Amino acid sequence: MHAIRFSKERAKQRNENEKLLQNDYEKATRIYENDPSDINRTCVEDIKGKLEMMYNKKTEGIIIRARARWHEHGEKSSKYFLNLEKRNHVKKTH
User: Fold this and answer.
1) Is the pLDDT at 63 greater than 90, yes or no?
2) Rounded CA gap, 64 and 85, in Å?
3) pTM surpassing 0.70?
């Protein structure tokens, strides 16, 4: 019961962090479009890098939950793994 509560709190924090990063990215992009300076560009690139790291972690979690037996390094075929995860969930519940 404690593990479930802990996991839900962590997931909620990750979702909030993702939303904040997306909002920051949108703001930084607007600022860069209005004033294309090197400082603004590096800010946009930093936030974009953080978002990409977060998405890579999500993809890795999907791959693990999908129980994929193979995964080529650098592959970003998340639709395939999402379908595998969905199929495995259906098998478990029926």
Assistant:
1) no
2) 9
3) no
